Amino acid sequence: MNHIAFIIPAYVLTVAGLVGLLLHSWLAMRAAERAADEMRKR
Amino acid sequence: MHRFANPARFLRIARAVTPWLVLPGLLITAAALYVGLFASPPDYRQGDSVRIMYVHVPAAWLGSGGYLGLAVASLTALVWRHPLANVAGRAIALPGALFTAICLVTGSLWGKPTWGTYWVWDARLTSMLVLLFLYLGYLALSAAESDRPEARGAAILSLVGTLNLPIIKYSVEWWNTLHQGPSITVTKNAIAPEMLLPLLLALAGFTLLFGGIVLMRMRTELATTRVAVRSRRLAEAHA
C-alpha cells in the first residue's frame, strides 16, 4: 500500500487547520482591537 | 491568580506574550514537519506511515490537554467568579475541538495502511470522538448563553466532561484495544531518538501555537466586549 497517499492528506489537513485558525484568530483580534481603539478615541 | 483578574493588566501581558508564542511556534512546527516528512527514518514495521504520528500525537495531546484547560477555566469561573475564566474557556474550546478533529482524522489516515481500516469502535477512538462531541456541546451551549452572563450550563458541561479524560488516557490499559499502548511514559521511552526529535519538536511547536491562538481569541473577546460596553454608554449618554 502506498503510504504517501495517506501521509500527504494528514499533513495538508493539519497545516490547513492550524494556519486557518491562526489566521482567523489573528485577523479577528486585529479587527476587534482596532475597533476598540477607535471607540476609545471618540 | 486574582492579580490577573483585571482585564487591562491581563491585556498588557497578553500583548507582550502573544508574538513570543506564535512566531517560535510557527518556526518550531515548520522544522518539526520538515524533519518528520523528509529527515526521519521510516519505522521498521509501520513503514512511512509512522510520519503521521508527528501530527497525530501533538493533536491528541492538545485535544486532551486543551479540554483539561477548559475544565480548569470553568471551575475557576464557577467557584471564584474570575472575570477572565469564562473568556479563557471560550477561547480554548474552538482550538481544542480543531485539534481533536485533526487527531481523529489523522488517526484514521494512519489506521487504514496500518490496521486495514479507517475506523473501529475501539475504546480509545470512541472516547476521543466523545471528546470532540463534548467540545462541540460546550461551543453550542456557550453560544446559546452568550447574552446571559449568569448562565452556567456550558461550564457545568465541561466539568462533567472531565470524566472522559481518564477514560481516554487509560482506555488502552483498561480494555483490549486495537490502538497501541503508550510509547512514552514518565519511566519508559520506546521511541528511537531520530523519531523522538520531530515528535518533541511538533509537541512544542503545536503547544506554542495553541497558546498563541488562545491568547488571540481572548484578546478578541475582551476588545469586542469593550466596544459593546462603550457603545451602550454612548447610546445612553445621547438618549
Question: How would you portray this structure in words?
Answer:
The complex is a heterodimer of chains A (42) and B (239). Chain A is mainly α and 42 residues long. In chain A, 90% of the residues lie in helices and 0% in strands. The model of chain A has no long low-confidence stretch (mean pLDDT 93). With 239 residues, chain B is mostly helical. Chain B has one domain (21-40, 48-181, 197-238): Up-down Bundle (Four Helix Bundle (Hemerythrin (Met), subunit A)), CATH 1.20.120. Helix content of chain B is 75%, strand content 0%. Chain B has seven helices and no strands. In chain B, helix 4 packs antiparallel against helix 6 (164-174). The radius of gyration of chain B is 20 Å and the shape is globular. The model of chain B has no long low-confidence stretch (mean pLDDT 92).
* Shape label of chain B: globular
Characterize the quaternary organization of these chains.
heterodimer
Question: What's the helix-strand series of chain A?
Answer: H
**Distance separating the two termini of chain A:** 64 Å
Helical fraction of chain A: over 70%
Any guess at the CATH architecture of chain B?
A: Up-down Bundle
Q: Whole-number average pLDDT of chain A?
A: 93
Instruction: Estimate what percentage of residues of chain B fall within beta strands.
Output: under 5%
Stated plainly, the CATH topology of chain B is called Four Helix Bundle (Hemerythrin (Met), subunit A)
Contiguous low-pLDDT stretches of chain B (5 residues minimum) are none
- The run of helices and strands of chain B is HHHHHHH
**Which structural class do you get from the secondary structure elements of chain B?**
mainly alpha
The number of helices of chain B is 7
